[in-house]
Amino acid sequence: VAVTANNGNTSKPNIIIMLMDDMGWGDLGVFGNPAMETPNLDRMAAEGMIFPNFYTANPLCSPSRAALLTGRLPIRNGFYTSNAHARNAYTPQYIVEGISNTEILLPKMLHKAGYVSKIVGKWHLGHRASFLPLKHGFHEWFGSPNCHFGPFNDLDRPNIPVYDGAQMVGRYYEEFPIDKKTGESNLTQLYLQHALEFINRQAVTGTPFFLYWAPDATHAPVYASRRFLGTSQRGIYGDAVRELDQAVGALLERLHSLDLHSNSLVFFTSDNGAALISGPKGGSNGPFLCGKETTFEGGMREPAIAWWPSHIPPGRVNHQLATVMDLFTTSLVLAGVTPPSSTPLDGIDLTPALLHTRTWDRCICAFVCLDGCFILMTRNSWQEFHQGINFCPAQEVHGVTTHNQTDHTQHPILFHLGRDPGEKYPIR
Amino acid sequence: VAVTANNGNTSKPNIIIMLMDDMGWGDLGVFGNPAMETPNLDRMAAEGMIFPNFYTANPLCSPSRAALLTGRLPIRNGFYTSNAHARNAYTPQYIVEGISNTEILLPKMLHKAGYVSKIVGKWHLGHRASFLPLKHGFHEWFGSPNCHFGPFNDLDRPNIPVYDGAQMVGRYYEEFPIDKKTGESNLTQLYLQHALEFINRQAVTGTPFFLYWAPDATHAPVYASRRFLGTSQRGIYGDAVRELDQAVGALLERLHSLDLHSNSLVFFTSDNGAALISGPKGGSNGPFLCGKETTFEGGMREPAIAWWPSHIPPGRVNHQLATVMDLFTTSLVLAGVTPPSSTPLDGIDLTPALLHTRTWDRCICAFVCLDGCFILMTRNSWQEFHQGINFCPAQEVHGVTTHNQTDHTQHPILFHLGRDPGEKYPIR
Ligand SMILES: [Ca+2]
Ligand SMILES: [Ca+2]
């Protein structure tokens, strides 16, 4: 299924997916953050195309990442809340499950077209040996199977490991320090260097590559390198955003200097909305309601920028409704790989939007398909609510937000997202 | 006090102030509106400089406009709430007061440098004969002394008049229809045509001009021309924004086609934040708290774009704290007019920010000067609250927002606006 583009050769472009962690729609200047401290991302948007209606598949790290890499909804790929302990919805150390061997991940599919794949950063699809990235199609990895929680100091719960390929090379808070008091850590720089080094090597070999760049500096506990600490109006969270923004700039600049820019699709987004329970130490979801761990717009809608000079027309806003799962299908189409026929896919091909600025009607269903397109994106059900936690501090809307897990299946709350993007005025 | 610029002749540029009505910080694509339907304003921003920290002087029409045109705080220029009826804070028909003869307005000052001045749109500084624009320095006027409230049908309270110069040419809902059912009115097109016609004439004479373009389509009842109705994702409010956006594009295009662009400073902003009491029929204040009629950020912070090709460097974000009153002083500096020495001014010269992208520390005081710079911008006092009205629907923050007028002078509520632009986490 090779795509035919009007504007030049799109055959087997390099694919770079930059997936941020808990970064909100409202964290970028181009998406209206008042601090406007993301000049590199804003330039990326000016040179590329932004998708203001881009969604994750679930407002939590693991299911969102599983959806991206499988092109399938969490309820299909196994990363969903199936019991009170939400055993498949996230992967702390005491959870022993992970990505199923029956799932076919993006790097494995792209390899059919000769792609070499690397993941840099957070994996979060299982920490046991059989679940790790190199067992699921990635050729290279630098990063960690989990979040950088810690420090831990008991043998039953050691610090989270960091891998280089199949080799464990240390642990967070030990060989890879994070100062929780000052917020200092050089991890984003390490993730940048490993990505640059991979791009350099691929430029030499000329092999098409897939780089999945997944730094986690904006996930609590938020961190930044020393030279970024204290540089943002927003505090430590803003410092982390500024460092990531600069890293994005460095990566795009490297593509330019290696003359790979016109043959590399770069897509920037986030795995879920900003965590409002972190208060001013977390990110911003702009005008949207609530955030991480809720299925309101603040939890589900993500910043999204596509960049591919001479293929994606510059400076465009595309209102196409799209999801992280589409990145799977779109990547396959661009690589000329036939999507797997054995399992149903939920992602669709976005190349008409990317290359020709098209939009079309579409129904996105978070879990089950009902009538109407936006219902399931906005309903407050199957949330990963812990009993009694308020994930919407200072954003409570009477009759809409709750502190408890509530099943709204029979009585979904409907909003007109065009007129009421903040979900404050239910129309039913 | 002629300014010396690095980048060419800035002597007596034309000055165009585009003042929107009840438009919020979050209504423009470039300020993060999810609909992103303002391509002309976004391009104006890309070619110019945006000021994310730009404030009005009061979250209501009349005092804000009085502050802009006098360069002085409402408490100085007389447009403030002095009693229970707020007689000087706004100017409905039964209010007989207006702008004082002792105030010296911007057009009168600019005339010293040979400028010809026109106001197109809403005046709102008094509707009796002695208060009208031509009595206070403007040479021309097309528009109305008041809001387009109505229709009224009693002799004591006739419909609001529309003027062309000193001549009343009709009334809203009569000669100048507004269909409150469909939202249709061609007023924005009339305001556009009168502005274009003025610019055309000034291009011929070569006289420097001041155009104060003050359309009010985004003030309730919101209206748009027929061809814009139903074109926005946002409903009638978005239709009005789209029409204004297109008018801005037409005005900038006209400056280009008449070769006036490099000699015209255009400044776009709004008189106060979006009115949240209008719900989905009103605008958006983005991530900020509350809106019109409150002194929270949502009421006071305004979208602001400065445009002056070959003088203002393109694509810049300037974090300078600035206010509508600065437009008075800045205009005088650019025109080479010495500001009046007889009365204290609250506006300052922004040319170092505009022409050289500079920023500097500054204390802005809404009413009285206390220690600290941001305190008075954020405190919830002297609000034009009517008893028991909630101006912050679905945005209530415990201990912060109130439904009643509350004097916080002795115990101001403080926020760190960098880390908490939404004013949800008081630090005191
Ligand atoms: Ca996450
Ligand atoms: Ca107003």
How would you characterize this protein structure?
- 2 copies of one chain form a homodimer.
- Chain A has 428 residues and is α/β, with parallel strands linked by helices.
- In chain A, 22% of the residues lie in helices and 13% in strands.
- Chain A contains 10 helices and 13 strands.
- Chain A has helices spanning 39-47, 61-70, 74-77, 106-111, 187-205, 236-257, 297-300, 324-335, 351-356, 375-378, and strands at residues 14-20, 49-50, 54-55, 116-122, 140-144, 161-164, 167-171, 209-214, 264-270, 301-302, 305-307, 316-317, 322-323.
- In chain A, the strands form 2 sheets. In chain A, strands 7-6-5-4-8-1-9-11-2-12 form a 10-stranded mixed sheet, with helices on both faces. In chain A, strands 10-3-13 form a 3-stranded mixed sheet.
- Chain A is globular and about 60 Å long.
- Mean pLDDT of chain A is 87; it is low at 1-8, 82-90 and 367-387.
- At the A-B interface, loops of A face loops of B.
- One calcium ion (CA) binds at residues 21-22, 61, 219, 271-272 of chain A.
